[in-house]
């Protein structure tokens, strides 16, 4: 280890690499030198399970208490674990399942599907059962699950089965698949297994609170009291998680200011432990490849790179309408210079900007898209009071505005920037010449085109609305 450390220190002061080579031995030794700073790089893989769990005692205890109920004759059939990304939900639920040896469990990540049908098949597969071929009545697969679970519990002499469904929100993107029915069938599964003397508990992990979705009353009433919230981590939690990882990952101690910077950037919007770990890894990799010491500048560079990648990944998989709604948010944010926008303003602008003769999206559909967008981390929502109009939901971009604009469509974005510049120039000129009527002045105040020559500006203009129609969505 000591020899590696010396070599590493020498490397950081070494002269730049020689000419590129196609020799495999040269490449191998180059990669080896690039990785000299790492003792165990796996510790910087956000997908690897942590050696030590930091904090989250309250949530861990709550889950264990719910499960322990089986010893006293009652287990809640469904636990909803929810919270923002990187708040440790998957980690803590996995930790509990691993350590709580009194139960049998299966962990199913639903991210690999987009439908209720697909989710049912993933659960069947996890239990070693054949997938469904057609989407006929969904009672049969649940009967099969019941048999498989009973056999497994009998065989292992256990009474409790825990089915973890991670990324549970996915099923709500498939309203035609009747997600509420899917949950109802899980609740029925618990009832049927109880008749055989077994206990069953499903744990749904999601970003949004389950009771916020459109669920049947029969489902709502049965899952009501078993929700566990994972608040975003504070800066201090993120820093401790990082310290633990850094200790294992690097051969020498990483300067505290580097970890602080990663923790700070990852806690800016909401404390996201995954983002912090990714930042540290990418920054260390870049610095190491450049044969330079890890510095704050590399962390900042990593932050920009990761944001770009994230936006690109989301946009690659997203629908045409998703991109249009995102474009509307980017556009209003740019023109209004405001961060938060009511759903009604977004809908109104969507209709105004994108009306291309096709059937415009309904208010409800735009609301759904906004919710999906929040799951991807591109936007954030808040409930805000509008005085006499009650409460409304507002959204803001979570990613850098200009990166989003450029990634959506560079030509469109630069056109918008140009149009604003021209408008400002024109306004300045008109103000200077003083040759304006009262009506024209009012139009300037409202950020509208002053005369016919400038009419094209109207297609770019952000039109204010106080969000009066927000309650139409029926969300509040
Ligand atoms: N309490 C913790 N102790 C140690 N490591 C943690 C803790 N919480 C989170 N982490 C680490 O942070 C990363 C993100 O955590 P995790 O995947 O559990 O988040 P999540 O809430 O499930 O996020 P998402 O909603 O995006 O799935 C993982 O690499 C995990 O190991
Ligand atoms: Mg997770």
Topology:
Elements: H1 2-13, H2 24-34, H3 57-68, E1 78-83, H4 89-99, E2 103-109, H5 116-126, H6 139-156, E3 160-166, H7 179-195, E4 199-206, H8 217-223, E5 227-230, H9 235-249, H10 256-266, H11 273-289, H12 296-317, H13 320-336, E6 341-342, H14 343-354, H15 363-376, E7 379-385, E8 391-397, H16 401-408, H17 410-433, H18 438-445
Helix pairs in contact: 5-6, 6-7, 9-10, 9-11, 10-11, 10-12, 11-12, 12-16, 13-14, 13-15, 13-16, 14-15, 16-17
This protein binds adenosine-5'-triphosphate and magnesium ion.
What name does CATH use for the topology of the largest domain?
Rossmann fold
Number of strands: 8
Largest sheet: 5 strands, parallel
Count every helix, treating DSSP H or I runs of 4 or more residues as helices. Answer: 18
- What is Rg? 27 Å
Strand content: 5-15%
Would you kindly provide a written description of the structure presented here, covering whatever features stand out?
This protein has 476 residues and is α/β, with parallel strands linked by helices. It folds into three domains: 2-48 and 234-314, Helicase, Ruva Protein, domain 3; 57-230, Rossmann fold (3-Layer(aba) Sandwich), CATH 3.40.50.300; 320-473, Arc Repressor Mutant, subunit A. Helix content is 52%, strand content 10%. It is built from 18 helices and eight strands. The protein has helices at 2-13, 24-34, 57-68, 89-99, 116-126, 139-156, 179-195, 217-223, 235-249, 256-266, 273-289, 296-317, 320-336, 343-354, 363-376, 401-408, 410-433, 438-445; strands spanning 78-83, 103-109, 160-166, 199-206, 227-230, 341-342, 379-385, 391-397. Helix 7 links the parallel strand 3 and strand 4. Helix 12 (296-317) packs parallel to helix 16 (401-408) and helix 13 (320-336) packs across helix 16 (401-408). The radius of gyration is 27 Å and the shape is globular. It starts with a helix and ends in a 31-residue tail after the last helix. The model is unreliable at 1-17 and 463-476 (pLDDT under 50). It binds adenosine-5'-triphosphate and magnesium ion. Magnesium ion (MG) binds next to helix 4.
